[in-house]
Amino acid sequence: MLAARDPWQLDSPLFDWARGDSFTLRHALEAVAIFGEIGAAKTTGSAAWIIRKYFELGMGGLVCCVKPGDRELIESYAKLTGRSDSLIIVSPKNRWHCNFLKYTLNCPGAIGSRVEQIVSLLMTIAEAAERAERSSAQGDKFWTQSLRELLRNAVEICVAARGEVTMTLLDGVINSAPRSPEEVHSEEWQRNSLCYQLIEEAEKRDLSFRQQADFELAARYFLRKIPDMPHDTRGSIFATYGVMADALRRGHMADLFDSDTTFVPELTFEGAIIVLDLPIKVYGQAGIYVQSALTYLWQLACEQRDVNKNPRPVFLFIDEAHELISNHTSEFLATARSARVASVLITQNKPNYLAAMGGEAGRHRVDACLANIGTKIFHANGDPETNKWASDMISEEVEIRMNYHGSRDGNGQGNGGGSESVGRKVLPSVFTQLKKGGPQNDFWTEAVIFRTGESFSSNKGEPWLRTKFKQLIPGVTMKDAKGGRSK
Q1: CA 20 to 30 Å from 100, out of 201, 433, 454, 483?
Q2: Do 272 and 234 contact (CB within 8 A), yes or no?
Q3: Which CATH number do you get for residue 385?
Q4: Cα atoms in the Cβ-side hemisphere of radius 13 Å centred on 468
Q5: Does residue 365 share a domain with residue 332?
Q6: Residue 225 gets which letter from DSSP?
Q7: Between these two residues, 244 and 301, which has the higher pLDDT value?
Q8: Residue 204, Cβ density class (10 Å: 0-12 exposed, 13-18 middle, ≥19 buried)
Q9: Final residue in a domain of this structure, among 252, 280, 304
Q10: Are residues 91 and 104 in the same domain?
Q11: Three-class SS state of 211
Q12: Boundary (domain end) residue, out of 221, 252, 283
C-alpha cells in the first residue's frame, strides 16, 4: 500500500527485468550504465524502457543530445507518457536561454565560493575542448592548474570591478593582459587595456575585507606574474583558454548562453525535462562545450538542493556519454543517490570512456566512475575489452574436478587426487551472441544485467541475469507499448 500512496518510495518497482526481479527507484538512484555496439538496440531497448518509466513517474531531468534524432526520440516518449508539456527544448530555434555565468554568480541558495564554481564551470568546458589533445597525466596537471589560475584571477577582476561576469568581460580581461613588465608601465597599454581599466575600477569600489584581499591577489597575478612568464608558457595557457572561449562567443552559442535567462536547472526539481538539443553533428564542438557546462551546473544544483523539502527524484540521461564525461562525473555519481538523481549513461564500449579521459593515463578515473554505478546493462558487443571486463566483473567460480588415479584396495577404496580449474559464469563470447533487435528478431533485443551485491531470484540467486527488451521505436513498435515490460 505504501508504494501505491507514495510513488517516490525507494523500493517502488518501476518494471520487472524478469518475473520476481524488479528494477526499483532505489536501483535507479544508484545509476545505470548501458553498453552495446552500434545497432545493438541499447537506446531503443533497455534505455528506452528506463527513461519511459522515469517520465511516467513524474520525474524531472536533464537530457543531453549528442546525435541528431535524440530530441525527436525523447519527444516521442514524452508524448507516449503524457509529458509533452514538461519539455524544455533548448536549441537556437527555441526561446530557452540560460546565461550560465550570471546564473552561477547569482543563483539563490548556492553553497561555497561563487568564483570557484564559475572557475570549475569554465574548466569543465576547457576539459571538453582539450579532450582530444590529452597525452599524459603529468603534462596535463601543469596546464590544467595554470588555466584554472588564469580563470580564477580573471573572474575575480570582473567581480571586483563590475559585480558580474560575462564572456565578453572575461575575454577582454584575458586578451588585454600585459605580455611584458615594460607593458605594465606603458601609458598606451593602460589606456587601451580592459584588464587595466577594470583593475582601476575595482580599486575605487568599497569592497569587503575578503573581497579586497582576493582582488589584490588577482591584480598582482595580472600585473606581475603574467608579464614575467616565459613567452611560450603564457602563450600555451592563453591558447587553451582561446579554444574554449572562441566557440562560446560566436553565433548561436552566444545567443543561447551569453544573453538573458529564460530557464534555470532548478526547474527540473518541479518536473521539467530539459532537453539540450545541440547535437555535435550539427553544432560541432560548441554543442559539446555548452552541454558540458549546463550538465555541470545542473549537477551542482542537484547536489545543493534540500531533498527533504523537495523529494521529487530527477534524472540525467546521456546517450553517447563518452562525449560528455568529465572529471566531475565520478564525484557526482558518488553522491547522486543522496541527491535523488537517477543517472543513465549510454555508450558503445569501455574504450570510449578511456579515450575520452586520456587513454591509459585516465584508466583509474574511468574505473572510479564506473565503480560508482550500481546497475550495468550489456547488449550485444564485439569489443574484446568490454566483454572481458563484463565477464570478470560478473565474477569467476571455482570448480573442483576430482581426477582419481592409482589402485583400489579390497574394500573398493581408491587413492585419488583433485585439481581446481576456474570457470567463468558468463564467458566473454556470450556478449557477442546476444540478439540485437530489429525485424529479424521481432524487435526484441537481449542484454545481460549485472548488479553488485544483489541477486536475481529468476537466475538462482546470481548477481546477473540474461533478459530481453521489446524495442520502443516511434511509428514501429510504440503503438503497442502499454503497461510494464512484458516477457
Answers
A1: 201
A2: no
A3: 3.40.50.300
A4: 15
A5: yes
A6: I
A7: 301
A8: exposed
A9: 252
A10: no
A11: helix
A12: 252
Q: DSSP letters of 72-128?
A: HHHHHHHHHTT-GGGEEEESTTSS----HHHHHHH-TT--S-HHHHHHHHHHHHHHH
Q: Give, for 350, the enclosing helix (H) or strand (E).
A: helix 350-356
Cell 591584480, located at residue: 219
CB 21 within 8 A of CB 461: no
Are 149 and 205 in the same domain? Answer: yes
Instruction: Tell me, yes or no, whether 304 and 344 share the same domain.
Output: yes
Q: Rounded CA gap, 64 and 295, in Å?
A: 8
The Cα–Cα gap between 451 and 464 comes to 7
- Residues β-bridged to residue 448: 378, 466
Report yes or no on 147 lying in a domain: yes
Question: Cα 356 vs. chain centroid, distance in angstroms?
Answer: 12
**Which residue segment(s) compose the domain that 165 sits in?**
100-252
Domain count, the chain: 2
Asked if residue 411 is part of any domain, the answer here is no
Same domain, 376 and 430: yes
Whether 109 and 63 map to the same domain: the answer is no
In a domain, 240, yes or no: yes
Q: How confident is the model at residue 414 (pLDDT cuts 50, 70, 90)?
A: low
Closest by Cα among 301, 226, 215, 216 to 265: 301
Which pLDDT tens digit goes with each residue over 128-186?
777 645 444 444 678 788 999 999 999 999 999 999 998 889 999 999 999 999 999 99
- 182 burial type by CB count under 10 A (0-12 exposed, 13-18 middle, 19+ buried): exposed
82 belongs to a structural domain: yes
Look-up of cell digits 525535462: 273
How far, in Å, CA of 431 to CA of 379, rounded?
A: 7
Task: Using DSSP, state whether 446 is helix, strand or coil.
Answer: strand
Sequence-ordered list of residues with C-beta below 8 angstroms from that of 251, at least 6 positions apart, any chain: none
b/e string for 447-472 if b means 16 or more Cβ within 10 A?
bbbbbeeeebebbeebbbbbbbbbbb
pTM of this prediction?
0.86
Within this chain, do residues 150 and 6 fall inside the same structural domain, yes or no? no
pLDDT at 459: 92
Q: What is the pLDDT of residue 204?
A: 95
Banded model confidence at residue 398, pLDDT cuts 50, 70, 90 = very low
Three-state helix/strand/coil letters over 134-163: CCCHHHHHHHHHHHHHHHHHHHHHHHHHHC
Helix (H, G, I), strand (E, B) or coil at 337: coil
